[in-house]
Amino acid sequence: MKFSVIFEAQLADPTVEREHQVIRDCVEQAVLAERMGFDRIWAVEHHSLKWYAHMSAPEIFLTWVAARTNTIRIGHGVVCMPFNFNHPVRVAERAAMLDLLSGGRLDLGAGRGGTEQETSLCGVDKERTTAEVEEALRIIGRAWQEEELEYHGELLDISPHPILPRPAQTPHPPLFLACSREETLVQAAELGIGALVMGFAGPVSIARMRSVYDAARAERDGGRFVSSVVNDHFSVLCPTIVLDDPQEARRIGIRGQRFFAQSIGHWYGGAGVPDEAVVAGNDEAAEMRRAAEQVVARLHEQDIPVRPTSTATFNADHAYGSADDAIAYVQRLKEAGADEIMCLIQMGTVEQEACLETLRQWGEKVIPHFTEGPGAAGSGTAGPGAERSGAAAADSDAPPRAALGADGPGRAASGADEPRSAASGADGSRSAPSGRSGRGPRL
Questions:
Q1: Sign of CA dihedral 47, 175, 218, 385
Q2: Which residues contact 66 (CB under 8 A, 6 or more apart)?
Q3: Domain 2-241+321-421 has CATH 3.30.420.40
């Protein structure tokens, strides 16, 4: 079981001063996450989504964090992969540079960035986003493995060029795909990459999504693999606030989630602007139910079918409360098939001290339960999908690779497991060029 923290840089007061402070706060949280024993941080790319996400240049944020940390993995995900957001060669170049400077700590996640607000900003054709994401992943996988990239696909033609620099990890950093629907889970499995399962639906839905992913893995033939290595890692979102006062933690967490749900509804579903106010003494659970009812009423007014997913972001059954509450919730996610718990802590109305205290509670009580205590047995510490697909053992003979910390080279990253090799896919040449050295990717 792995543990990570995911950042969108969300804020309820979108002034310049508050925006700048939230970005600095996210850096402080990321640095503390390493000290508290988290395995990874993730930073999600979005554009022009006021309130919901101010993380428009995650590669810069992550480079800043990498220079202040030594061992925590750097999750550059998700990256908006449609070509008008990011040309795949530029993604490969930037990500390789970050992998190099971080000492081989990078993971790369792909997504569509599919809101009208974002696609209209950059001239993205929404009808092509799924195809462009897949082709981008295929290009990146090859760019990192071939001495010269030459690619002639359905959407892009690239004449022979060396793509520089090469990443520190060989053959390249692990690849992931953001997944919120069955179609994207199947796509991730067929491409041979990990799933970043977003959403607030909870353990029951996570178990169903894991079944979809596993079924697609069982049926795939390797023809769509985007790399010579397969990553079957299954990461799931875990909204959480943990404090000594569990009732206060629940109030703060549910209020933060309500803001999150309203802000995402504003940009994805055309709802009104999110409620920024934090009112002392409010029954936040009741406010959450009321907000969900308003969504249902709006859908009825527009003759739009109401589905379980319509109000999933208003489901408040998450890791809010005491450390014991969080442990119990994580156990449910583990039993549902999670390989990694992505903690969503930084929500728009949650103050920095509550975020920092939550990280401390997880580091001191929750994570040790699963890595050292009774929850550790059978939790799985091998590489991507090892419990289900037999990942290779750690490359213990590989030389340690130091990260570039704020004061120069830091201590070496901890031991790693390599994803297993895959059969050649439809793209033909997928093996790493001879003469390349370096450490294999780990999760």
A1: negative
A2: 74, 98, 101, 102, 105, 403, 404
A3: no
Separation between Cα atoms, residue 231 and residue 417, nearest integer Å: 11
- The alpha carbon dihedral of 376, 379, 382, 384 has a sign of negative
Measured distance CA(43)–CA(222) in Å, rounded: 29
* Positive or negative torsion for Cα 371, 194, 173, 75: negative
Beta strand 73-80 with 106-111 is: parallel
- Please report how many Cα atoms fall inside a 13 Å half-sphere around the Cα of residue 45, on the Cβ side: 26
Quote the CA–CA distance of 183 and 166 in Å, as a whole number. 32
pLDDT lower than 50: segments of the chain: 379-437
- Which amino acid appears at position 314 of this protein? F
Q: Two tokens at 123?
A: 């001239």
Residue at token pair 């706060």: 25
**What residue segments make up the domains of the chain, in order of their start?**
2-241+321-421
29-78 pLDDT per residue, tens: 999 999 999 999 999 999 999 998 999 999 999 999 999 999 999 999 99
Helices (H), 144-202: 182-191
Helices (H), 337-441: 352-361, 367-371, 386-389
- Say if residues 146 and 427 touch (Cβ distance below 8 Å): no
Nearest-5° Cα angle at 212, 390 to 312:
125
Between CA 356 and CA 25 the distance in angstroms is 9
CB contact at 8 A, 11 and 234: no
